[in-house]
Amino acid sequence: MDISDTIAPNSDQLDAVDLLPGARTFSIEGVSKGNAEQPVQIHLREFPRPWRPGKSMRRVLVAVWGKDASTYAGKSLTLYCDETVRFGGQAVGGVRISHMSGIDKPRDVPLIVSRGKSAIFTVRPLADAPKTPEPTAEQVANTTDRAALQAMWKASGPEMRATIQARVAELDATNGEQP
Fold it and tell me: Which domain covers residue 166, as residue numbers?
């Protein structure tokens, strides 16, 4: 029995603890404005909550992909939990970028690590992986297996996800049977 879903943080964003099992590669669906404390929300296709990068990782994004966040949609990056990230003098962990698509060689970005101290942060190229095609509405309508629908959901954009959710609700309503 997989109990990993029982340890998920109660949060409205991607947290470093979500990446403790290991680095994960995500496709960016879009970027929206956040609040004053966390001004950028990056919406990830493969994760239900947005990633809100800290200032250092926003500097990396701008250095590598440019300042126009509207161009980030469709690009990919690999995120990991860096347990050495400090806040208030304590190592609390944080989300860092290890790889980014759209670059052909490693990129070094100077970052401020503490007051008056900087360090070079290196981002590596992310090999372009073949993308899983989004399912068609017909494929969703003909699917009765929940695991298959979940896999389709991960490869889908917002509109097709709504179609998949409607299909799951339809399956739930039919005699309460589990496919």
Answer: 137-173
